Inverse folding.
């Protein structure tokens, strides 16, 4: 087992994603958003990037949308660099996944 504190089990992931999908206040919201590896690589390869921070926003359709930004060694967002969004959202483009009920 890894010592990485960010790694969780499939069961933990399912409990979290199922709870979100079952919550009345999140019905008809985005379940997931896929962003390609090239975009993520560009973001994390920025000079001084030490990690990523994910903000939760609403897109023009009033659906949940991640806004992903790098942060530096001072825990400051790299807002002058690459900021990601515009993923492939589920729904409508849902994969077959044990994280979706």
């Amino acid at each position: 087992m890894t010592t990485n504190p960010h790694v969780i089990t499939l069961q933990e992931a399912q409990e979290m994603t199922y709870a979100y999908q079952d919550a009345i206040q999140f019905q008809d919201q985005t379940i997931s958003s896929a962003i390609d590896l090239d975009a993520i690589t560009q973001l994390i390869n920025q000079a001084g990037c030490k990690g990523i921070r994910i903000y939760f926003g609403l897109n023009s359709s009033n659906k949940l949308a991640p806004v992903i930004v790098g942060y530096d060694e001072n825990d400051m967002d790299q807002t002058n660099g690459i900021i990601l969004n515009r993923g492939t959202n589920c729904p409508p483009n849902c994969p077959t996944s044990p994280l979706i009920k």
In short: The longest strand covers residues 51-58. DSSP finds two helices and five strands in the chain. The longest helix spans residues 10-22. Residues 71 and 77 are 4 Å apart (CA to CA).
